[in-house]
Design a protein that fits this description.
Elements: E1 7-10, H1 14-22, E2 28-31, H2 37-42, E3 50-53, E4 63-65, E5 71-74, H3 79-84, H4 86-91, H5 93-99, H6 105-110, H7 113-119, H8 125-132, E6 136-142, E7 151-157, E8 162-164, E9 167-168, E10 175-181, E11 188-196, E12 203-213, E13 219-227, E14 234-235, H9 237-241, H10 250-263, H11 274-297, H12 301-308
Parallel strand pairs: 1-3, 2-3
Antiparallel strand pairs: 4-5, 5-10, 6-7, 6-10, 8-9, 11-12, 12-13, 13-14
The chain binds flavin-adenine dinucleotide (FAD).
């Protein structure tokens, strides 16, 4: 299949891209890695009149250390960089661990973190993983009534970003510019796992978990998110909260996993029934919580694991 005709703008700067998106008389879409958008065009599921290519905008491809030790990932950071960059592996090992599950290396070399979040696919790994990490998104647009070139920026918790399948708070003239991931606290461990029909396929179910233990081994913070467990990338608060305030025993982990499976809202499709998805949620939640807690108990274990994979 060939895509429908479209005009093409190769933006050389963020202002140029925002300027093009501000002209809402022409249906315009940003083009990032193209790994979701181009198939949509080829299947004629989308037919924008104009594409604004973000690949020439250097400032969108930067990974920066924040003062608090967290990282600011430019929207054009490729999945492959999440997987291979030593700084990302050391600061946010969960991202490196999960990025390997996305598709195949060729797709990871082009696909971007901003594209994955903006696309808002409930079956994508990164939105769920970034929710577990408490990420925030930076969004920019050109001022609607101001001078050309003036920018309006907003920053919000990723938890408020997703509104439905392939649907987010982004307006057509807005660009996701960066994602901020807070630093890892002492006593923190995290893990990701998924089940897919074949290596590289979209997950039938994926689970990301993060826990923080205090010096006495009591769980002080927990977060669990699901890939393909609902109509949006979803945070499983009740299950995570059930772990907080006590030592995470195997019984507590099993019980949190059961709550996660009960409170999730997975759909049935040609790949799996709802019951099978709930079963996977329980098994994978138990598995990733066990791994995250072991990593939290042994500082350095997570980084070592990331380096050897
Ligand atoms: C065969 C195949 C298998 C795949 N398997 C997986 C998988 O297992 N898991 C997974 O998560 N993904 C998978 N993908 C999708 C891949 O990860 C994409 O890279 C990702 O979903 C979108 O990122 P992109 O940079 O390619 O975005 P694009 O395809 O360029 O854009 C996607 C959408 O987001 C919009 N957009 C892009 N960037 C921005 C921005 N900065 N601000 C606002 N809007 C923006 C675009 O206009 C478009 O609507 C697969 C793709 C293919 C082709």
């Amino acid at each position: 299949m060939k895509p429908p005709r479209f005009d093409y703008v190769a933006a050389a700067s963020l202002d140029e891209a925002l300027e093009a998106l501000a002209d809402t008389s022409v249906e315009t879409r940003p083009l990032a890695g193209g790994q979701s958008l181009v198939p949509l065009l080829n299947f004629r599921l989308a037919a924008p009149e104009r594409l604004v290519d973000l690949n020439g905008i250097a400032e969108l491809a930067r990974v920066e250390e924040m003062e608090d030790g967290g990282l600011r990932l430019g929207a054009m950071t490729r999945h492959r960089q999440l997987e291979l960059d030593p700084l990302i592996a050391q600061r946010i090992p969960l991202l490196a661990e999960a990025a390997r599950f996305i598709a195949h290396p060729q797709i990871r070399s082009r696909g971007t973190v901003g594209g994955s979040v903006a696309h808002a696919d409930p079956a994508a790994e990164l939105p769920a993983v970034l929710l577990t990490l408490g990420a925030r998104v930076h969004i920019a647009r050109r001022s609607r009534d101001g001078e050309p070139g003036s920018r309006v920026a907003r920053k919000l918790d990723l938890a408020g970003f997703f509104l439905g399948p392939f649907f987010s708070v982004l307006d057509p003239d807005e660009l996701l510019t960066a994602i901020e991931v807070p630093p890892r606290a002492a006593g923190e461990g995290s893990a990701f796992d998924e089940v897919a029909r074949r290596r590289g396929d979209y997950a039938i179910i994926g689970v990301a978990a993060r826990v923080r233990l205090d010096a006495a081994g009591v769980c002080r913070e927990a977060a669990i998110s699901l890939v393909n467990g609902g109509s949006t990338p979803c945070v499983m608060e009740e299950a995570a909260d059930s772990l907080v305030g006590a030592g995470p025993t195997s019984g507590a982990i099993a019980s949190a996993a059961a709550v996660c499976a009960e409170t999730a809202d997975p759909a049935a499709d040609m790949h799996a029934s709802e019951a099978y998805r709930r079963h996977l949620i329980r098994v994978l939640t138990r598995r990733v919580l066990t791994r995250a807690i072991a990593r939290a108990r042994t500082p350095g274990r997570q980084e070592a694991r990331t380096r050897t994979r």
